[in-house]
Design a protein that fits this description.
single chain; 173 residues; mainly alpha; globular
């Protein structure tokens, strides 16, 4: 997840400008994204407690993949608002559930700082490497190629995670 998302990073502003967005437009789109995540995690947390964090996380990963492929079709600020809104909903689904599952399965409470530091540190290191890949792809190919690669990575992540969770549920009974 971190790898695919990290590929876009600061390139986002260049992409938004390419589809006709001004600095103010980009601010509005990103504010929408953050607002959807902020409100969404509150709602999703309650839903995930009832239906299962595993299911909500996998659905969020899947929506993330679909929304990322949607960037290929963005040709206006209106389309960017829509796709960025979908990515916000997706992140609101997978992020709190990932944290809940990580916390639930991270072992005893004697090394919480280290365990959480490991999760955060690896996320940022992976995102740093991904940013270099993303920049290379855009510099030598296109944003469309970047979105296709990101979408494929997210699709593989979704399928792999679903299989792991299905395995855990099946063999934990």
């Amino acid at each position: 997840m971190g790898f695919a998302i990290g590929m876009f990073g600061p390139l986002y502003a260049l992409f938004a400008e390419e589809v006709g967005g001004s600095i103010l437009d980009i601010s509005w789109v990103y504010a929408l994204y953050l607002g959807i995540i902020g409100f969404g995690v509150l709602v999703v947390g309650k839903i995930a407690d009832r239906v299962g964090a595993e299911l909500v996380m996998v659905l969020g990963y899947g929506l993330s993949a679909l929304a990322t492929f949607g960037f290929v079709f963005v040709d206006s600020m209106r389309a960017l608002f829509l796709v960025q809104g979908l990515t916000g909903v997706a992140r609101a689904m997978w992020e709190p559930t990932w944290f809940a599952l990580y916390d639930r399965h991270s072992g005893d409470d004697t090394q919480d700082g280290y365990i959480w530091g490991l999760a955060s540190g690896l996320w940022y290191m992976l995102s740093a490497v991904a940013m270099l890949f993303g920049g290379y792809i855009v510099a030598h190919h296109s944003f469309d190629m970047l979105f296709i690669v990101m979408g494929c990575v997210l699709t593989v992540t979704t399928i792999y995670t679903a299989q792991i969770l299905r395995y855990r549920v099946h063999y934990s009974k």
